Structure formats: C-alpha cells, structure tokens
Amino acid sequence: MAVAVVTGSGGLIGSESVTHLVEAGYDVVGIENDMRARFFGSEASTGAVTERLLSEHPEFRSLELDVRDADGVDAAFARHASDIELVVHTAAQPSHDWAASAPHVDFGVNADGTLNLLEATRRHAPEASFIFTSTNKVYGDTPNHLPLVELATRLELPEDHRYSAGIDTSMSIDASMHSLFGVSKAAADLMVQEYGRYFGLPTVCFRAGCLTGPNHAGAQLHGFLSYLMRCTVTGEPYTVFGYGGLQVRDNIHSADLVRAFEAFHRAPRTAAVYNIGGGRASNCSMVEAIALCEEIAGRPLHWTLSEEARLGDHRWWISDLGEFRRDYPDWELEYDLRGILREIHDENAERWGAAA
To answer: Which of 99, 165, 182, 237 would be 137's cystine partner, CB 3.0–4.6 Å?
Structure first.
C-alpha cells in the first residue's frame, strides 16, 4: 500500500490530512510529539486527537518523534523508503509571539526540522510529493505599507490597487520585520524551494493565511478564530492587539486546505509556491469576527483593545488565490467565514461550556 507521511499529525492541518489520506486509501504514518502542549499549555495538547485518530483509523500509525531528530527522521523514512508517495509537513512552532521566548527552539523546529525531512525524502523517497505548510509571515510586515483606507469595521485597499483581489507571490519578502517566527518559516520555505530546484524534488510551499476549523485547539497565542469563539462561549475575556480591531485576516478551513494538498499531489510541480487562504470569499476584521461570534453564540464577548500591536503583525492580509486556481482549476473553497465559525461553535460549545 502507498504510504503518506504526515508531520504534526495531531494538529489541525495534520489531523485533517490523516483522515483525508486514510479515506483516500493511504497507509498513513504520523510524526507527532505533542510540542503544542509545551508551546501553549495543556489545553493545546494534541494527545487526545492522536488517540482519536488511532482508534478510528487502523491504517494510521503514530510515531512519537521530534522533527529535530535527524537520525530518527531518517530511520523512519528508511523503513518505508520507496513506498512513500506523499509527505505532508505541518509540524511547526506556529506562534510569532512564542518564538521570541525561545528562538533556538523555534528555529530548530521550523527550519532545522524541515531540512531533516527534506533530506530524508531526498535519500529515501525522491519521487514523493513534499507539501510544506508555510505562512504569510514570510512576507514580514511589508503588507503594512499598503495604502489602506479605514472603513467603519475594517481596513481595506482601494479597488484599483494591484493587490485589491488579494496579495500574490510577487510581494517581496525582503526589507521588512518578520518576527523570529517569520524568519524561521522563511528559512524553511526557501529550503523547500531549493530542494525542488537543486535536487528536482516535487515540492510546494503553501503560504497560508489563518488556518482554522473545528479541530483547532485555540489558544491565546495561536488559532484566533477558535480561541475567539471559545472566549465568547465561556465568558473568558479577550484582548485585541492594536489597529483599533480593524485589522483584516483571511481564513481557510482545514478541509479546504487539505483538498488543495491533494490537488497538488495529483499533478505535482517542482519548487511551486502559492499564497493560500480564504481570499476574498472568507475574510474578516477583528471587530467583524467578534460580531459574528456573538451572533452565532447568542451572547456577548467581553473584550478589550490594547493599543500595542504585536511586532510584525499584519494590518491587512487577504490571499490572492488566482495563481493556485490557474494551475489547479478544479479546486474551490467549500467554506466561508460564517460556515467556519458555525462549525467551530456547534462542535465545541458544549465541551467548552462544561469545562468553564
């Protein structure tokens, strides 16, 4: 049976990938060591998700392995070698706030871990598609220099601006503040591209906006839509950092992103790079997201505004999906923002309420 390797298999995108690939007929090997609990506390632990995946899918095996362990990663790939058809790399330290507290850990996981996986793929499965979940933070704070206009509930670009449909990959990643997280992910992103160009591996970097879905273990430093809805349901206070709450994000459901992975694997390219997210179909400002959470939950959110924005944070980000759609025209988003938040609420509200 064909083997797919999924790193970070207990996380939001990793677990979605596991389920999707098992149902597609793959023998799936997960690499997971629950670093999320170390990053964000026990409430962000991936342990329960891993246990659920193991109980639901006999075709799934989980290796407790740190991607920073080059020898361990190489041995795991050597065991399956030419049977590996697909590598989905989602393991990461995902917070630019947390990165500043432990730069060596952040760079080790995001950059060195990615290099270990690329080298193991090159040695043992060079024909396998290598899919990397990158981030829009590789562009640093360059989007903050766009000529944004302040509207009642959001910042917005003029309709005649070149990025009005969304930001494409022509935006420079240079001469900007990235946060340490953005730097470690940019290093990984460039290495993934280089293994495509230099060694001919079929690789892709998906530079994602906000990734979300009902399986997101929303924490204060990561997973803002899930955490926002959780705070609305439980009455926990929420802090919005900077920009008057008018900063804009696009949001893509984990299932839509994994279907993009599948589309790439069916027709892989070498050293491909795409911006991916909710685009113009699924985006919101913070105050718009708060209003929608309150409407869906039927109760107010207790939130305050801090005037201090996070370093390197974006004032406005909407992905231009045109580049990916041109190469993969059969792919479309199935979820919009309301559908995403409704699903997050309906699948978690009872559990959150019981734990409050």
So the answer is: 182
What SS3 state is found at 150? Answer: strand
81: closest CA among 120, 29, 30? Answer: 120
- Which residue intervals of 10-93 are DSSP H helices? 12-23, 35-40, 47-56, 70-80
- Integer angstrom CA distances of residue 85 from 12, 72, 261: 22, 20, 13
3-state class (DSSP) for residue 88: strand
Question: DSSP E strands: which ranges in 2-152?
Answer: 3-7, 27-32, 60-64, 84-89, 129-135, 149-150
**CA of 26: how far to CAs of 22, 55, 125, in Å?**
5, 16, 16
The two structure tokens encoding residue 93: 């330290």
Helices (H), 201-304: 224-234, 254-266, 286-297
Rounded mean pLDDT, 179-208: 97
pLDDT higher than 70, residue 29: yes
Which of 142-146, 204-208, 286-290, 350-354 shows the lowest per-residue confidence on average (mean pLDDT)?
Answer: 350-354
φ, ψ for residue 32, nearest 5 deg: -155, 135
In angstroms, the CA 220 to CA 321 distance is 28
Q: Are strands 283-285 and 248-253 parallel, antiparallel or unpaired?
A: antiparallel
Helix (H) or strand (E) holding 284: strand 283-285
pLDDT at 346 over 70: yes
**What is the DSSP secondary structure assignment for residue 270, as one 8-state letter?**
S
Indicate whether this model's pTM tops 0.90. yes
> Phi, psi at residue 280, to the nearest 5°?
-75, -15
What integer pLDDT is reported at residue 58 of this predicted model?
A: 93
